Amino acid sequence: MHLSTDMRRAYALAVRRRALTAQGVAEELGLDEPEADRVIAGLVELRLLQQDAEGDLFAAVAPDSAQLRLLGPLVREISVMQEKADRIRADLGSLLPVYWDEVESAAGQIEVVRDLDVVLTLIEEFSARATTEVLTSQPGGGRPVKQLETALTFAQELLERGVRMRTLYQHTAQFHQGTAAYVVHVAPLGGEVRTTASGFPRMLVFDRRVAVLALKGHPEGALVLRNENVIDVLVDTFERTWVGAHPFPLSYSKGQIVHVSSEVKDAIMRLLVVGESDKKIAARVGLSLRTCQRHIADLMQEIGARNRLHAGYLLYEQLAKSDADVLK
User: Fold this and answer.
1) CB atoms < 10 A from the CB of 39, how many?
2) The pLDDT of residue 270 is above 70
3) Cα–Cα–Cα angle for 235, 161, 179, nearest 5°?
4) First and final CA of the chain: distance in angstroms?
């Protein structure tokens, strides 16, 4: 209720006269009776006038008393609502530590590291703590000599402590002199190395508790995972690839070379069928782009393909027939 000018004048009149009537208000303030009645009703609603028992006279009430009488119920209602809000705030607030502990724990299970020195330090630390097994997969063919020297020191320390170590390479790594020399050193110590034609992620898994993966777009960085569920998936992928892989040969024969070449060719064919680019095919089978393009050109000439699309169609039919023969 807004306190109008007429209501202010009527209240002042009531204070001076101690009591007044609606008729008196009309006469003193020059109002008609309906207007005077509205003014009196408004002051009563604001608790600034109090009606006597007979209902004819209205006495002025002190503003502070009127305020208490008018706002009391509202203040009590606000107080109740405030108490309710405080209880809700306290109850929900008590859950914040639970929430943030879990969030921080989850965040700690995935760590992005972009500095090579930090990555190497972490790998050294994880290696020193490993007690059961380390799984490594190194796609892309042979590795640089410096990396192989570091890997050899890393592998020797693990194997001498009795930690099992299994490594996956792609077939093309068999023809890399540095990688072959690495395998010759670790095999007598118990290191197990296999190769496969298909691609797989670059990673290290320590005791199936922490994994270090290549960081996309940052060749010197790494993604460190500590989430057991994610690591289980990575290990399962490794195991599936391991079962179908072949032991890294310590010596070579013509038959071995032919077999490896055949598997690489088959992998290229399957990737061509699904429409992968030359660059992606090269990365998946561990060949340089130029070597891979030469293999693709030879393959297209061999099957008589007019273009890439025609090659995909012919290879699809050839692979379908080959797979059907295997199932017979």
Assistant:
1) 24
2) yes
3) 65
4) 93
User: CB neighbours (10 Å) of residue 324?
Assistant: 9
100 has a pLDDT exceeding 50? yes
The one-letter amino acid code at 175 reads: F
Question: What's the pLDDT at 27?
Answer: 83
Provide the pLDDT for residue 322.
Answer: 64
CA 274 to each of CA 128, 140, 175, 315, 316: distance values in angstroms, whole numbers, following the listed order: 43, 20, 28, 10, 9
Listed in order, strand segments (DSSP E) in 114-181 are: 133-138, 164-170
Mean pLDDT of 275-298: 79
Name residue 222's beta-bridge partners.
Answer: 113, 214
Structural domains of the chain sorted by starting position, each given as residue range(s) with its CATH number in brackets: 5-61 (1.10.10.10), 110-249 (3.30.870.10), 252-328 (1.10.10.10)
Q: How much helix, strand and coil, in percent to the nearest 5, is found in the chain?
A: 65, 15, 20
Cα–Cα distance for residue pair 9/15, rounded to 1 Å: 10
Residue 326's pLDDT band (cuts 50, 70, 90): very low
State the pLDDT confidence band at 287, using cuts at 50, 70 and 90. Answer: confident
Is the pTM higher than 0.70? The answer reads: no
The DSSP element (H or E) to which 110 belongs, if any, is: strand 110-113
Q: Are 302 and 271 in contact (CB under 8 A)?
A: no
Q: What is the pLDDT of residue 140?
A: 74
pLDDT for 194: 92
Q: Looking at the DSSP assignment, which residues form a beta bridge with residue 51?
A: 58
> How many whole angstroms separate alpha carbon 212 and alpha carbon 67?
71
Token pair in block for residue 26: 């009309």
Nearest one of 180, 111, 105, 197 to 142, comparing CA atoms: 180
**CB neighbours of 21 closer than 8 A, spacing ≥ 6?**
56, 57, 58
Identify the CA nearest to 273 among candidates 241, 238, 305. Answer: 305
